[in-house]
Amino acid sequence: AGNLRQAHVGLGMRVLEIGSGGPNAAMLAHLVGPDGEVVTVDIDESVTARTTAGLERLGLSDRVEVITADAGRHLGRGVFDRIMVTVSPWTIPKVWLEQLAPDGVLVVPLQIAPGLQRIIGFRYQDGHLISESTVPGGFVPLQGANRYEPPAVELTGLSGKAVTFRFADQIPDDFAVTDGVLAAEHAEAWSGVIYASRTIWLDLLTWVLIQPGGCAMEAKDPTDRGAEKSFYPAITEAGSFAALAWRPLGDGNELEIGAVGKGPAAGALTTRLAESIQTYGADHRECDPIFEWWPEGATPDLSPSAKTLPRPHGMLTISWPARLRRGRSTLPHIARNL
């Protein structure tokens, strides 16, 4: 599994798995060997019972301790070289860092924004976490004391189906998108950023979701956004929104990324989003973003361009290295269709 590779588990290590199930704990037991130790914890007693039974059948009970508890509280099992989280949290509780050795690795499918996870391999250095690997993936949300439900507004689109706006922190005070806005004519703007079909745009989705007004716009019928070929990241401003969109080019093996939106300011907002996508394509595409977690009390040392996302127990920051380019950018001007 990708997250196991990210953890760099070696012989003799102590490993904590948060979110049990069985197979992952068994693989960890083999990786740490007879001189290592694995502790696996889950809040659900039926899950830990299944894990215990499976480990007994495999003859690995002597290497793995199974605990039923809320991992949001200190387990009292000392310090671990590696912590692997197999449920998706919104934040990184302080107690996890208290149980992680200096220079240890924490692998966690962190919720970067509503609807978007990244499995991040963090290294614990100088009192904070810094990413050294990221891979796509998704896990069930973390339960217990640190469970998080993003605030949301649910509307009804022209199709008669639900359209939901989910925000990372709080619903903006000026949010005024209504069912009537969803029934209005749409505006489009196109960035000139081209992808091969069937490409995963994970970094682009991250870029859009952390823009001012960024949110997950979930539409059961995508045409309620204004275009069938649209996707959930969106930005909002008062009574208008602009969502990610794409259109096929040529024989369909390539597609162009743009924006589709509705509301009184849809023209300006779709142009703004398309320009932001153009900036991403020119300056940061194919550059892995750097994720850092600064626990409460830490003093962040940030680049001027870093995006800060305050969370319970600390702050997540995201920064993009600049893309090395040869020559001048050939991206065209924004194309708008009103």
TrEMBL record:
UniProt entry keywords in alphabetical sequence: Cytoplasm, Methyltransferase, S-adenosyl-L-methionine, Transferase
Main localization of the protein described in the UniProt heading: cytoplasm
PANTHER family: PROTEIN-L-ISOASPARTATE O-METHYLTRANSFERASE, PROTEIN-L-ISOASPARTATE(D-ASPARTATE) O-METHYLTRANSFERASE
UniProt KW Cell membrane keyword: no
Pfam family, one: PCMT
Domain of life, source organism: Bacteria
CDD domains in alphabetical order: AdoMet_MTases
Family per record: Belongs to the methyltransferase superfamily. L-isoaspartyl/D-aspartyl protein methyltransferase family.
EC number: 2.1.1.77
Subcellular location field: Cytoplasm
Name under which the protein is recorded: Protein-L-isoaspartate O-methyltransferase
